Amino acid sequence: MANIDVDAIVVGAGFGGIYTCKKLVDQGLSVKVIEAAPDVGGTWYWNRYPGAMSDTPSKLYRYSWDLEDLRQYRWSRDYLKQPEVLAYLQHVVTRHDLRQHMQFSTEMKAASWDETRSLWTVLLSSGKKLTSHYLVTAIGLLSKQNYPDIPGLKSFNGEIYHTGSWPATHDFKNKKIGVIGNGSTGVQIITALADEVEQLVSFQRHPQYVVPAGDKEVSPEVRRDIDNRWEQIWTQAKNSMLGFGFEESTVPTFSVNPEERERIFEKAWKEGNGFNFMFGTFCDISYNEAANEEAQNFIKSKIREKVKDPIKAERLIPKDWFARRPLCDIGYYEKFNKPNVDIIDIKANPIAEITPNGIRTQDGSEWKLDVLVFATGFDAVDGNYKRMPILGTSRRSLADSWREGPESYLGVSVPNFPNLFMILGPNGPFTNLPPTIEIQVEFISHLIFEANKSASVNPERQPLVEAEPNATKEWSTTCDELSANSLFRKTDSWIFGANVAGKKPSVLFYFGGLANYKKVLEDVIQNGTKGFNTF
Fold this sequence. Notes:
Oligomer: single chain
Strand content: 15-25%
Helix content: 25-40%
Low-confidence stretches: none
Largest sheet: 8 strands, mixed
Keywords: FAD, Flavoprotein, NADP, Oxidoreductase
CATH class of the largest domain: Alpha Beta
CATH superfamily of the largest domain: FAD/NAD(P)-binding domain
Radius of gyration: 24 Å
Number of helices: 17
Protein name: FAD/NAD(P)-binding domain-containing protein
Mean pLDDT: 91
Pfam family, one: Pyr_redox_3
GO molecular function: oxidoreductase activity
CATH topology of the largest domain: FAD/NAD(P)-binding domain
InterPro entries: FAD-binding_Monooxygenases, FAD/NAD-bd_sf
């Protein structure tokens, strides 16, 4: 077998990279995790903007595989803020002594497959190279920042920030802030900043349907109940459609009368969580247009009820389908009742340019600002893979392979890229991420274990695993068919890549649900790693 530096290189030290490191080390492999940040955390290291919060209940935004730690590790509220998520991941790394396998402040600049020696060579930002049998990318769905192409951006004399790379400290007191973008990040940062700044102007093109999070303190009684039911909680989550801890509805919207429909919506609104409101109330909101309009109308009535200024309220009323990533908040709409918070509808009155002093809209109005905040999201899912050269067999790059749109087998493997495994790659499931990450990491570690076992029989044989082209095409067709009737597909958003100018919209997720995805992976394993070539 070829000489290598380590058995596996793992790129990224967030949820996926940390668990991959542990699984492969537990298998007796040598592992090197490389991370661009100075410490662990991944997305939760960089996304430290004010108000950054998980939209998953705290009990399910963690790992399931350490029952003792689940019972011992404490959190105070139903939803975790960024510092708490980061502290938890740092705790896990320390608890399992994983930091010894990690190299920080180090980026992967390029990677190439050596067909002669059957190994990966990874070029690091330090200029050094590392070789390995396996390359596992745990770079996250949302990491390549997206800046809109607005004339004059470089002319602005004030401070400019992107929420995906926030400074360690900031002071916005007595400053005028412009926030461009109002997805999950925009909603959170507007809610957090509104009370501390002199003026906040939200520039919105697509107002969102935002449901209360229902955030509250976790009482000792509730925590005792959770600690007694951890196995049940995780079994339910991993065998559900979304993995958010609630039972998805099987009731069609129009199978109940209007009064009952209103009662169900109201109950979900008070309970909180955007995914619960969309999928826990009725089963057809995401694909039945009339059902979707019923949910829309309920949320719109709540917006008008919460926002006292009718002009602001109408600007906050969404015009699209209720079919973007479901959002939840801790007081977003109420912030627009403050006299220092305003909203500009940039679909009706687009941004013409950024000036040295602020933002000028098409009608000639200029907003004088001290700070510009871009909450404009990311080139999601495949963006990070295409910004660096990753070369497979015949020296063909991953970017070239995905020129007509990203494809993978099961969201983890790509034909012609042997021993490359992706966590949360294209066409993985649209779900709560930690349970999905666990399922994928366990699947990938199984593939690596089986490849090593096969290679051990013949010392001259290299362990190789590669997705079959036909299996990949079939999986892509499945993902396309499952999303065909979804209203998510009829709405411009990052879920189908429509948020990035010039990017061809494509199917980026498997909409069959977490439980079905888990069954597919189990079937692949039970049928001798069906869909993979092993050598």
